Amino acid sequence: MKYPDILERFLSYVKIDTQSSDTSETFPSTAKQKDLAANLKPELEALGLQDVQVTPWGYVLAAWPTNQKHKVPAIALIAHLDTSPDVSGAGVEPQLHKNYQGQDLVLSAGDSVVLKVAENPLLKEQIGKTIITASGNTLLGADDKAGIAEIMDALTYLAEHPEIPRPNIKIVFTPDEETGRGVEHISVFEIGAEIGYTVDGEHLGEIEDETFCADSLEIHVFGINVHPGMAKDKMVNAVKIAARIIEKLPKNALSPETTEKREGYVHPNQINGNVETATVKFIIRDFTKKGLKKSEKMIEKLTAKVTAQFPGAKSEVKVSESYRNMKVVLDKYPDVLAKAEQAVAMAGLKVLRSSIRGGTDGAKLCFMGLPTPNLFTGGHNFHSKQEWIALEDMRKASEVLVNLMKIWAE
Ligand SMILES: [Zn+2]
C-alpha cells in the first residue's frame, strides 16, 4: 500500500482550521478541532492501528500492539490538534520555499509580513532546505500539526518496515492544548501507557524536560469609604494602596519584560477596585519551588509594608497552585530522557536539552502519573504569521521517533 508522504500529510492538516478559543466554555473550545480529528481516524486505521477512536471530547486515540515476543512497555506519542487562539488559522495557504539560500522571505504580497534572517538567525542553518511558511495572513500551524505529521510519518515507516522492533504504541492527539485545557478530559488510564512524549517543541534535536513552577496570587486590599466631601482623616483609599504596591515592585527584574532563560518573574496582569476594596491578580513563575516561594514572600512582605503606611487599611494575599516543573517527576525516570537523547543522537543530531518558559500538557501529564517530556518538531515562531519549519527537519523528527520506538522495544 502506498501511504502519503510527510509533506502531503502536513499540508493537508494545516489547511484544516483548528483554532482553539480562550473564551469558550465548551470542550473542545471549538468544534472545528474535530474536523482534523475525523480525518486522522481513517489515516490511523489505514496504517493498521487498532481501537482508533475520536472520543466525544475530541481526543484521537489509537493503539498499536508490539511486534515483539518479550515484554515491552507502552509508549504514548502525543501531539495537539488545535492552533493558537492568538492568530487566525483559517484559510492557511502553505508556501514552499525550495532550496533556500539564506535570504529574507516575503510572505505576503504587500510585503508587510517578512521573515527576516536578522530576526531569525536559525534560518542560516537551513541553506538548501525547503522552508514552509504561511502566506502572511495566518499562522502556519506547525504548532502542532508538524508534531502530528511527524508521528503519522513515523507510524508509516514502522508499518512499511514490520521487521523494526516496536513497543506497544499509544497515539493521543489532544484538543485545546493552547488554552491550557488539553488534558482536562482524559486520564492516564485511558491513555494506557507507562511513558509519554509530546512532540510539540521547536529546534532540531531539542528535548525539553523542564517547565516553570507556576502559581497565581491575589492581593486583596480593604480601605475605608467615606463621602469624599467629609473624608478628611477618615477615608482610606484601596485604589491608592493597590497602586502603591504595584509601584514598589522591582523595576528592572522579576518581570516577563525583563527576564529570560531560567529567570522567574512576578507578573501583575489584572487589577480591579474602588475606594473600599481593590484586587490585584498576579501570575508567579520560577523554575524552582524555592524561587517561587521566595517571590511570593516578597509580595506578601511588600503588601504588608505598604498597607501599614495606610492606618485603618487591611490586606491579604492568597496563593493558589497552578502547575509544577515537570523535572521533579522526570528526575525519577532517567531512562525516559536518556532514551530520547539516544534517539536524537542516532539520527545524527546534536542533543539540546532545554526548559520551557511556560507549561505544557506534558507537565500536567507528569503530575497525573505519566512521565512526559517534550520533543522537537523543527518548527519556529509559533503563534505568529512568521511561523516556519523546514521539511528536512520534519523528516528528522520522524526519524527520531522511529529510533525512539526501536530503542524502547529492545
Ligand atoms: Zn504546541
The mean pLDDT is: 96
Question: Can you write the helix and strand succession as a string?
Answer: HHEEEEEEEHEHEEEHEEHEHHEHEEEH
Poorly predicted runs of 5 or more residues: none
Helical run tally: 10
Helix amount: 25-40%
Q: What overall form do the CA principal axes indicate?
A: elongated
Tell me the β content. 15-25%
Protein architecture, described:
This protein has 410 residues and is an alpha+beta fold. It has helices spanning 6-14, 33-46, 142-160, 188-191, 238-247, 289-308, 327-330, 334-346, 361-368, 391-409; strands at residues 50-54, 60-64, 74-80, 95-97, 105-106, 114-115, 131-133, 168-174, 195-201, 206-210, 213-222, 265-273, 277-286, 314-323, 352-355, 374-376, 379-380, 388-390. The chain contains 10 helices and 18 strands. The strands form 4 sheets. An 8-stranded mixed β-sheet has the order 1-2-8-3-9-16-10-15, sandwiched between helices. The two termini are 27 Å apart. The model has no long low-confidence stretch (mean pLDDT 96). Bound molecules: zinc ion.
Question: What's the arrangement of secondary structure elements?
Answer:
Layout: H1 6-14, H2 33-46, E1 50-54, E2 60-64, E3 74-80, E4 95-97, E5 105-106, E6 114-115, E7 131-133, H3 142-160, E8 168-174, H4 188-191, E9 195-201, E10 206-210, E11 213-222, H5 238-247, E12 265-273, E13 277-286, H6 289-308, E14 314-323, H7 327-330, H8 334-346, E15 352-355, H9 361-368, E16 374-376, E17 379-380, E18 388-390, H10 391-409
Helix pairs in contact: 1-3, 3-10, 8-10
Bound molecules: zinc ion.
